[in-house]
Amino acid sequence: xxxxxxxxxxxxxxxxxxxxxxxxxxxxxxxxxxxxxxxxxxxxxxxxxxxxxxxxxxxxxxxxxxxxxxxxxxxxxxxxxxxxxxxxxxxxxxxx
Length: 96
Description:
- It is built from three helices and four strands.
- The chain has about 100 residues and is of the alpha+beta class.
- Strand 2 and strand 3 form a beta hairpin.
- The longest helix is centred in the first third of the chain and has 11 residues.
- The model has no long low-confidence stretch (mean pLDDT about 95).
Protein backbone atom coordinates (compact mmCIF):
# COMPACT_ATOMS: atom_id res chain seq x y z
CA UNK A 1 0.00 0.00 0.00
CA UNK A 2 1.01 3.57 -0.65
CA UNK A 3 -0.30 6.97 0.36
CA UNK A 4 0.21 10.49 1.46
CA UNK A 5 -0.16 12.63 4.55
CA UNK A 6 -0.87 16.30 3.96
CA UNK A 7 -0.88 19.23 6.36
CA UNK A 8 -3.54 21.71 5.27
CA UNK A 9 -4.07 25.12 6.87
CA UNK A 10 -7.39 26.74 6.00
CA UNK A 11 -8.19 30.42 6.19
CA UNK A 12 -9.82 31.52 9.46
CA UNK A 13 -13.62 31.21 9.43
CA UNK A 14 -13.90 28.83 6.46
CA UNK A 15 -13.66 25.43 8.19
CA UNK A 16 -17.36 24.58 7.80
CA UNK A 17 -17.38 25.58 4.12
CA UNK A 18 -14.14 23.65 3.53
CA UNK A 19 -15.62 20.46 5.00
CA UNK A 20 -18.87 20.92 3.07
CA UNK A 21 -16.99 21.30 -0.21
CA UNK A 22 -14.77 18.32 0.60
CA UNK A 23 -17.86 16.13 1.11
CA UNK A 24 -19.46 17.42 -2.10
CA UNK A 25 -16.33 16.79 -4.17
CA UNK A 26 -15.66 13.32 -2.75
CA UNK A 27 -18.94 11.39 -2.82
CA UNK A 28 -17.07 8.12 -3.40
CA UNK A 29 -13.53 6.76 -3.39
CA UNK A 30 -11.23 7.35 -6.33
CA UNK A 31 -10.02 4.30 -8.30
CA UNK A 32 -7.48 2.38 -6.22
CA UNK A 33 -8.21 4.35 -3.05
CA UNK A 34 -8.68 2.28 0.07
CA UNK A 35 -9.25 5.01 2.68
CA UNK A 36 -9.09 8.71 3.39
CA UNK A 37 -8.91 10.32 6.82
CA UNK A 38 -9.10 13.97 7.79
CA UNK A 39 -7.99 15.13 11.23
CA UNK A 40 -8.75 18.58 12.65
CA UNK A 41 -6.13 19.60 15.19
CA UNK A 42 -7.11 20.34 18.79
CA UNK A 43 -4.37 22.95 19.05
CA UNK A 44 -5.55 24.96 16.02
CA UNK A 45 -8.92 24.27 14.38
CA UNK A 46 -7.65 25.75 11.09
CA UNK A 47 -5.04 23.00 10.71
CA UNK A 48 -5.96 19.63 9.22
CA UNK A 49 -3.99 16.52 8.43
CA UNK A 50 -5.28 14.36 5.59
CA UNK A 51 -4.13 10.77 5.17
CA UNK A 52 -4.96 8.85 2.00
CA UNK A 53 -4.32 5.16 1.40
CA UNK A 54 -4.11 3.57 -2.05
CA UNK A 55 -3.64 -0.03 -3.16
CA UNK A 56 -0.13 0.81 -4.34
CA UNK A 57 2.18 3.48 -5.67
CA UNK A 58 0.94 3.02 -9.24
CA UNK A 59 -2.71 3.60 -8.21
CA UNK A 60 -1.68 6.67 -6.20
CA UNK A 61 0.33 8.19 -9.06
CA UNK A 62 -2.39 7.39 -11.61
CA UNK A 63 -4.96 9.15 -9.43
CA UNK A 64 -2.67 12.15 -8.88
CA UNK A 65 -2.50 12.94 -12.61
CA UNK A 66 -6.23 12.56 -13.32
CA UNK A 67 -7.84 15.84 -14.47
CA UNK A 68 -10.72 15.25 -12.02
CA UNK A 69 -8.27 15.03 -9.12
CA UNK A 70 -6.60 18.28 -10.10
CA UNK A 71 -9.97 20.05 -10.52
CA UNK A 72 -11.04 18.98 -7.00
CA UNK A 73 -7.69 20.10 -5.61
CA UNK A 74 -8.08 23.57 -7.13
CA UNK A 75 -11.56 23.95 -5.64
CA UNK A 76 -10.37 22.95 -2.18
CA UNK A 77 -7.39 25.28 -2.36
CA UNK A 78 -9.80 28.22 -2.43
CA UNK A 79 -10.09 27.62 1.34
CA UNK A 80 -6.37 27.15 2.00
CA UNK A 81 -4.18 29.76 3.63
CA UNK A 82 -1.12 28.23 1.92
CA UNK A 83 -0.10 25.29 -0.24
CA UNK A 84 -0.45 21.99 1.65
CA UNK A 85 2.65 20.09 2.76
CA UNK A 86 2.60 16.64 1.12
CA UNK A 87 4.48 13.62 2.43
CA UNK A 88 4.19 10.55 0.17
CA UNK A 89 5.39 7.09 1.03
CA UNK A 90 5.02 3.35 1.24
CA UNK A 91 2.82 2.12 4.08
CA UNK A 92 5.01 -0.36 5.95
CA UNK A 93 2.92 -1.19 9.03
CA UNK A 94 -0.79 -1.54 9.78
CA UNK A 95 -2.34 -2.50 13.08
CA UNK A 96 -5.19 -4.90 12.18
